[in-house]
């Protein structure tokens, strides 16, 4: 760890400077030089079982925190699609068109795109709990504001800002799971996370439809979401613990400084000096750098964005098929979403079934992540997904075909959606472990625009092309994306060898683990880079995380 009583035989080395420091009145200057080496004052992990390493926590403690994070994710995704049942009532109450009324759905999802660019880097600067708890509180306030909105523009604004703050768990929870779970268990944890991301949007339209059909009215779709947000805030405040190692070690260093009055004690990350330009260039812009400069992140994100768009397009397509075409009551017509929910659960089971194989590969690779092994279930999903779309397209529009046929197509589609989306996240996290939250934020940023845009043209597309060919068009696009996991399984490792953020050799992996706070071998290397004006060609720089 470090020595609280440094040895005078190891004096610290000071960098010569011509600056005349004055610390106070009467010409008071710098105190005597430190009488120990720099490393003697550094706070670090004491061992593998150090409580500052969340991976060492007991399983019950991990699961308690994971459950709270999962509920945060469910509330955020629930809030996005529960409004779909309110589109028609809002249109009538505020005298706007149906497409205009849909903006309450799409603006919320647009908020998903903007929020992660700030929340993910903030979580890597200040920890996971503070952004999640603060965002949950503000989200709850905006949901209650939406429920009491007196005019249409207020409803739209509050829905948008609710989406901005709801995006925090979507961007941060993946990083928190990376803190809590090691390589062998992270896949199962992310499976639970991804299931909630998709179950929320599929189950909330069912609840919302029965609420709006009852005497409660559409405003209670927002009230109930606000109540769920308030519960999530209480859980975050009193049960959720900080999981980020850098933040925990910074707190430990602050405690030791207070107890010993030795203000040289610090964590290596506290040597970073940030200004607004640094924060923007290296923290806030990191998700965009990953998105547009990393081929793996870009192509995987495009694929998951298409999947995410289909998810929200179904919020319009299913009512068209089951309510308009088949004449089923609007509330009852939402029940076929249960097929998609079952599919999501089946997809989770497929992914979890591959975990023992992945763990064997992991152990054979000296416990260094093998990201490409995450792609095998994604390959299965890439095949299932277009099959489900074609099945839905050619069974949904015919009254002589039983309603159970298009409903069962949702099992295949849902399994494809989950396996693609989930393993895409696992692949990104394994490949970009040290900047996982920012990589997920980049993914969330782009896919949210697809999720926001697809519902706006769903009705027109299904009306003009018909259910058969509108669904087939989506199926053909699914076929076009299908080779992506197969290509990355073959060429992914070669691409990662050329990445500045995804080192593949053992030495760099080891360095990343030892410098989890995001430093590139300490401040001295950073100073060296600044002097030469160059950038690291290996792992990410201190401020990139």
From TrEMBL:
- Region listing for Disordered, in residue ranges: 1-20, 503-545
On the tree of life, the source organism's domain of life is Eukaryota
Give the record's membrane topology. Answer: Multi-pass membrane protein
One Pfam annotation reads MFS_1
Q: Which UniProt keywords apply?
A: Membrane, Transmembrane, Transmembrane helix
Query: CDD domains recorded for this chain?
Result: MFS_Tpo1_MDR_like
Named from the GO MF annotations, one term is: transmembrane transporter activity
Q: Kindly indicate whether the keyword Transmembrane helix belongs to this entry.
A: yes
UniProt xrefs under InterPro entries? MFS, MFS_dom, MFS_trans_sf
Localization recorded for this chain is: Membrane
GO CC terms for this protein? plasma membrane
Biased region (Basic and acidic residues) positions are 506-530
Provide the transmembrane region boundaries: 66-86, 98-118, 130-148, 160-181, 188-211, 223-240, 290-315, 335-354, 375-395, 401-425, 432-457, 469-491
Task: Just give the chief location class.
Answer: membrane
What are the Major facilitator superfamily (MFS) profile domain coordinates in residue numbering?
65-495
Q: What is this protein called?
A: Putative transporter
| Annotated organism of origin | Lachnellula arida
């Amino acid at each position: 760890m470090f020595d609280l009583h440094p040895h005078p035989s190891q004096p610290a080395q000071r960098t010569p400077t011509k600056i005349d420091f004055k610390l106070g009145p009467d010409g008071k200057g710098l105190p005597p030089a430190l009488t120990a080496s720099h490393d003697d004052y550094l706070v670090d992990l004491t061992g593998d079982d150090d409580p500052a390493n969340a991976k060492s926590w007991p399983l019950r403690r991990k699961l308690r925190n994971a459950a709270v994070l999962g509920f945060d994710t469910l509330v955020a995704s629930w809030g996005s699609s529960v409004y779909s049942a309110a589109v028609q009532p809002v249109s009538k109450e505020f005298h706007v068109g149906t497409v205009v009324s849909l903006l309450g759905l799409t603006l919320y999802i647009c908020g998903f795109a903007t929020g992660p660019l700030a929340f993910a880097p903030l979580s890597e600067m200040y920890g996971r709990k503070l952004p999640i708890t603060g965002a949950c509180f503000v989200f709850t306030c905006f949901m209650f504001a939406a429920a009491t909105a007196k005019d249409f523009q207020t409803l739209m604004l509050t829905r948008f800002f609710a989406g901005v703050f709801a995006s925090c768990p979507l961007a941060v929870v993946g990083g928190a799971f990376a803190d809590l779970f090691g390589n062998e268990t992270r896949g199962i944890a992310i499976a639970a996370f991804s299931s909630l991301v998709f179950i929320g949007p599929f189950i909330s339209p069912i609840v919302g439809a029965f609420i709006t059909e009852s005497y409660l009215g559409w405003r209670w779709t927002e009230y109930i979401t606000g109540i769920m947000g308030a519960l999530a805030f209480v859980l975050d405040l009193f049960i959720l613990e900080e999981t980020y190692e850098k933040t925990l070690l910074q707190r430990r260093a602050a405690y030791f400084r207070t107890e010993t009055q030795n203000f040289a004690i610090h964590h290596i990350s506290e040597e970073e000096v940030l200004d607004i330009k640094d924060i923007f260039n290296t923290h806030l812009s990191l998700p965009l750098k990953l998105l547009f400069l990393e081929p793996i992140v870009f192509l995987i994100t495009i694929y998951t964005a298409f999947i995410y768009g289909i998810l929200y397009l179904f919020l319009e397509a299913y009512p068209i098929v089951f309510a308009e075409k088949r004449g089923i009551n609007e509330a009852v017509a939402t029940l076929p979403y249960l097929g998609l929910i079952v599919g999501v659960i089946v997809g989770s089971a497929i992914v979890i079934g591959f975990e023992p194989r992945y763990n064997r590969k992991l152990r054979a690779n000296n416990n260094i992540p093998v990201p490409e092994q995450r792609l095998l279930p994604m390959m299965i999903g890439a095949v299932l997904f277009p099959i489900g779309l074609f099945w839905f397209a050619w069974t949904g529009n015919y009254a002589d075909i039983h309603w159970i046929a298009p409903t069962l197509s949702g099992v295949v589609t849902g399994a494809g959606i989950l396996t693609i989306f989930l393993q895409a996240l696992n692949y990104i996290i394994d490949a970009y472990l040290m900047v996982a939250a920012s990589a997920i934020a980049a993914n969330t940023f782009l896919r949210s625009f697809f999720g926001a845009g697809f519902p706006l043209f769903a009705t027109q597309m299904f009306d003009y092309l018909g259910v058969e060919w509108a669904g087939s068009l989506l199926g053909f696009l699914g076929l076009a994306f299908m080779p992506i996991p197969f290509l990355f399984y073959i060429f992914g490792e070669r691409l990662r060898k050329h990445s500045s953020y995804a080192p593949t050799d053992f030495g760099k992996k080891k360095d990343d683990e030892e410098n989890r706070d995001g430093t590139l071998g300490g401040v001295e290397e950073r100073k060296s880079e600044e002097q030469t004006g160059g950038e690291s060609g290996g792992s990410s720089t201190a401020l990139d995380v």
